[in-house]
Amino acid sequence: MPRTTEPVLYEVSDGIATLTLNRPAKLNAINYAMADALLARLDRLEVEGAVRAVILTGAGEQAFSAGGDIHEFSESVAAGPETALRDFVRRGQAMTARIEAFSKPVIVAVNGLAFGGGCEITEAAPLAVSSTAAVFAKPEIKLGMPPTFGGTQRLPRLAGRKRALQLLLTGETFSPERAFELGLVNQVVAPEDLLSAAHDLARQIMEYSPLAVSAILGAVTRGINLSIAEGLLAEGEAFARLVPSHDLGEGLAAWKARRPAVYEGR
């Protein structure tokens, strides 16, 4: 990738957009400019028809992201609760919520440290691949604060209450293998295989109907925090929206004819 001071690098190849958090000298700490740039880029990618999947990784070899930019957000804290909530908490929560609810697959490729906000991005993303060189932690407790980008809510849902609380209350680091056991990542690979593994996963998903992929992402994101009865309604609504679509008709016709399906947008 070209050298640039842009906080989020961007490139597209074969329908896959790669976004790279780009503050390697600061371990890709998430400052306000980076969070805003990532949100703006996701807004554009969601309506870009040529892009079918997004990979999110970090620049350099040391970190995916070491978390929020402490020097910057401490100034917001010093300005008082209203400023800290507006500038820091709501911005970070908007970023992770956008990733979580994105209508196309977002695959985080964790290439190094994933502390604090970097871990919260991983929790929010629907899919994640980790390098064996990665290290995870929820160290906010060491700053005298809870996580603020959704970590107190998503980690217990992924890992279970007691396992999450141990990580949240101790700030201890944990390995990629532990992250896999806890449900934070889908697979762990050698550092040199990280991006290719993320691309392979994206290409596997891209074989199928973009509408069906979006419907599954939406139904799971909506339903996971609902009762099973409400979640089943969300599932039915997702299916109903596909009934008149080309993709569902094509998928059924292709199956009956024993031929590959040709979906719109592929």
Write the layout of secondary structure elements.
Layout: E1 8-13, E2 16-21, H1 32-46, E3 53-58, E4 63-65, H2 70-78, H3 81-100, E5 106-110, E6 113-115, H4 117-124, E7 127-131, E8 135-137, H5 151-159, H6 161-170, E9 173-174, H7 176-182, E10 187-189, H8 194-206, H9 210-223, H10 228-242, H11 246-257
Helix pairs in contact: 1-3, 2-3, 3-4, 4-5, 5-6, 9-10
Give an overview of the whole structure.
- The chain has 2 domains: 8-206, 2-enoyl-CoA Hydratase, Chain A, domain 1, CATH 3.90.226.10; 210-257.
- Helices cover 50% and strands 16% of the residues.
- The longest helix is centred in the middle third of the chain and has 20 residues, at 81-100.
- The strands form 2 sheets. It has a 6-stranded mixed β-sheet with strand order 1-2-3-5-7-10, sandwiched between helices. A 4-stranded mixed β-sheet has the order 4-6-8-9.
- It is globular.
- The mean pLDDT is 96.
- It contains 11 helices and 10 strands.
Quick synopsis:
The chain has eleven helices and ten strands. It is of the alpha/beta class and 266 residues long.
Instruction: Tell me how many strands there are.
Output: 10
Portion in beta strands = 15-25%
Number of domains: 2
Q: Mean pLDDT score, rounded?
A: 96
In the CATH hierarchy, the architecture of the largest domain is Alpha-Beta Complex
The number of helical elements comes to 11
Q: What's the CATH class label of the largest domain?
A: Alpha Beta
CATH superfamily of the largest domain: 2-enoyl-CoA Hydratase, Chain A, domain 1
Low-confidence stretches: none
For the biggest sheet, the summary is:
6 strands, mixed
Structural class: alpha/beta
Please give the order of strands in the largest beta sheet. Answer: 1-2-3-5-7-10
Q: Look up the CATH topology of the largest domain.
A: 2-enoyl-CoA Hydratase, Chain A, domain 1
Q: In whole angstroms, how far apart are the ends?
A: 26 Å
Q: Helical amount among residues, as a percent range?
A: 40-55%
Order of helices and strands: EEHEEHHEEHEEHHEHEHHHH
Q: Could you say which overall geometry the principal axes of the C-alpha atoms support?
A: globular
Give me the Rg, rounded: 19 Å
